[in-house]
Amino acid sequence: MRSPRLTCSRWCSRLARSPSSSCCGPRTRALVQMEDLSASISAIQYYTTIQPSVRGRNVYLQYSSHQELTTDQSSHGRNPDQDEPNRILLVTVHHMLYPMTVEVLHQVFSPYGFVEKIVTFQKTAGFQALIQFQSRQSAIQAAGALHGRNIYDGCCQLDIQYSNLSELQVHYNNDRSRDFTNPSLPTEQRPRSSQLGYNDPSLFGFQQPGG
Fold first, then answer.
1. Domain 82-188+199-203: which topology?
2. Theoretical Cys-Cys bridge with 157: which of 94, 113, 139, 183, CB 3.0 to 4.6 Å?
3. Cα 209 from Cα 211, distance rounded (Å)
4. In sequence order, what E strands does the chain have?
5. Which residue, 48, 174, 149, is CA-closest to 95?
6. Segment Disordered: which positions (predicted)?
7. Strand order in the sheet with 155-162
8. Domain locations along the chain
9. Distance separating alpha carbons of residues 150 and 168, to the nearest angstrom
10. Residue-wise pLDDT tens digits, 144-189
């Protein structure tokens, strides 16, 4: 699956010998350092007349305020371009205009293989879900086919990364989590004197990714 970051670097390399270095920020944007200022100007001018795109989505170029880029990834976590394929996918849903449930996600991802477990939660990045397939190959096929696609027309866009988790722990089968290998799980937590919010990740036995 071609990375948008690598694609941006290839676009710029068409107009100069090669970008001297590249560094990427969030998954929706990339910073590319050209060999010199004239190469940057040429790239901007060239792509004002030709509209570049990645997987059918338009990409827009502009000058950055950065004078030089570094390749230190420690503050951003793993570089998604270097993600090792895993049978667990981390899915972020952008532009979510309709409710997202376990049933909806299962319907979207199950055509690519047996989905064992799904856990959903809310973070600052938006609605997220961890989806565990029975096999790594199924997860690879799902990521390749669904990344950047919309669940509904014009909304609910899927941003998919490989999780670094090895196994999801699910304790409840309801609209927020489901273990499809264990249908006998209860639907709700038993009353407790000190109640936790359902979105507390400790209920599922894993650390929230990207934190």
1. Alpha-Beta Plaits (3.30.70)
2. 94
3. 5
4. 21-24, 30-33, 53-54, 57-58, 88-94, 115-123, 126-133, 150-152, 155-162, 177-179
5. 149
6. 176-211
7. 150-152, 155-162, 88-94, 126-133, 115-123, 177-179
8. 4-58, 82-188+199-203
9. 25
10. 999 999 999 999 999 999 999 999 999 999 989 999 999 999 998 6
